[in-house]
Amino acid sequence: MLHLIWVLIIGAVIGAIGSLIVGRDMPGGWIGNIVGGLVGAWVGGSLLGNWGPNVAGMAIIPAIIGAMVVVFVVSLLIGMTGKKRDRA
Fold first, then answer.
1. Angle subtended by helix axes 29-48 and 60-87, to nearest 10
2. Domain range enclosing 73
3. I need a surface site. Which of 28, 32, 46, 58 has the fewest CB within 10 A?
4. Dihedral over alpha carbons 11, 17, 23, 25 (to 10 degrees)
5. Structural domain total, the chain
6. Number of CB atoms found within 10 A of residue 47's CB
7. Which is it for the CA torsion 88, 75, 7, 47, positive or negative?
8. CA 67 – CA 61 distance, rounded (Å)
9. Is the CB of residue 14 less than 8 Å from the CB of residue 37?
């Protein structure tokens, strides 16, 4: 149970760092940051491997890079759907 809480906290921090670096907010507040951080850690680990320091089973550098990609893609998708609603 403690490991799960630790993973969620680290996921939130990674998502928040990714949002700050990209300069776009992840929708959903802290829950969005947790999801973005966890998905970003998975994407970063899949694309870049597990190098660098590990915390809660996540390689921090690839996880932050992956979170940046996830935040950017999600913000683009949300922006595109918002523009479609504005036109209708």
1. 120
2. 2-87
3. 46
4. 30
5. 1
6. 11
7. positive
8. 10
9. yes
